[in-house]
Fold:
Amino acid sequence: MLEQLFGSTTRVKLLQRFLNNPDQPYYLRELARAIRVQLNSVRREVANLERIGIICPMTSADVLPGSGGDARHPPAARAGRRRTLKKFYLANPSFLLNPELKALLVKAQLLLEQKLVERIRSIANVRYLALTGMFVGLEGFCTDLLLVGTVNRKRLARLMLQFEHELDHSINYTVMTVAEFHYRYNITDKFLYTVLENKKIVVIDRLRSLQR
Structure:
């Protein structure tokens, strides 16, 4: 959807990268590796975003102490330093439409999440499905998705890889059979209870043992 709106998949990925990490500077090659897009495409779209004002360029001189051309650095030394300076890009905090763009990206992610749930339903007999971790703002959580039921794991892996590409974010998912879930629930398994007792979106719940 956003590709049609913004006219470029690469542009959408760059917007997600910059707006979701507003304090993180990025070099062009670093961006190309992160979003798995050719460098020339990244360079072109970064130039577009810079021209619009969504991102701003900087160099290491902007953040290095004493790099503003003061007396401690003679002209010859400063010239040598300039030759080694690298250009990087950062989200522009002063861009007026930042809140609207972020809200649009969130809504687009919600649509992707709904699509992901529908695809999982089509390939699995799901007894319990919860979105947590990255889906609810818990970065670095033990898992992003918990699925309890019967599923072809190879098909699920392919599906997750596809959505990782669309979300520009890795998805750490966990699959349990119903028997495994009940066993781990009854022994108060630390991992399982961490998931159950933290922030999450329960999409499907057909397990009576969760009615606590």
Summary: The chain has a mean pLDDT of 83. The domain at 2-95 is CATH 1.10.10.10 (Arc Repressor Mutant, subunit A).
